[in-house]
Write a structure and sequence with these properties.
alpha/beta; Oxidized Rhodanese, domain 1; five-stranded parallel beta sheet
Amino acid sequence: MSATTSALVNVRWLREHLDRVVLLDASIRRGAGTGPPFADGRPDFERAHLPGARFADLFTAFSDPASPLPFTRPSADGIRRAAAEAGIDDDSTVVVYDRLSGAWAARIWWVMRSYGFDRIFVLDGGLDAWQHAGLPLESGPGRAHRAPGIFTPIDRPGFFVDLETVKALSSQPDTRRPLVCALRAEEFRGDPAQPRSGHIPGSVNLPYAATVDGEGRHRGDRTRLAAAALGLPAATGSVLYCGGAINAAGLALALHEIGVTEVGVYDGSLSQWRANPELPLSVTPGGPHR
């Protein structure tokens, strides 16, 4: 492990610096019934958000809307536009929060860092932590922001990895560069009766949910124990994935907090892997499941 600066801020710090940061609300609404699993969080944002927050659209701004896969990393031009719309420039300090597990905020944190922007932090505990502290919320479409200066995306290779890299790691597992699934244990195990369930062969399981407490606050002690059990603190270049690279970004943040910073996120994750019937999945117990 190496020493690292925390990417988390708490409610007290944010309250004291609220007028000096660009505050982004990364809300996503969980789907219901037979519809899509996730929906636009703007209605929730407009109903209640932290003072001065701006809505960060994870469907069309901080992701590539032209991609066939959900929540794909945007292009350099896409992130430049998203930053401009949010009022972010090269000198901004950005804080992101959400109202679910914190993984959605972590996704924006990871995307922005993949384009060379490090002055970005995640509010530990999200909107719930702010409310539990008895602090006020606003409603409406959000405040207008000043016109930003220049935001210069600088691509950082290695933050995201592609399908071919994951295929190679799956076919020849390498303890120096393990594949790590950030889904809950039951999703990782899969069900032989459910087609295309389970995990990428050769991967191990460290659920993002195991790194936070019941209030969505990061618990470094839990992350450290879970990572040590898998040998991750000694590993370099671990590749993280989940269903759609959201919990994987959350796990990247959790690992960052214990000094495990040399990781990559498989952007296509299981959304891409499962879509190809030629790519095998494993269930536990049991062998390959196609």
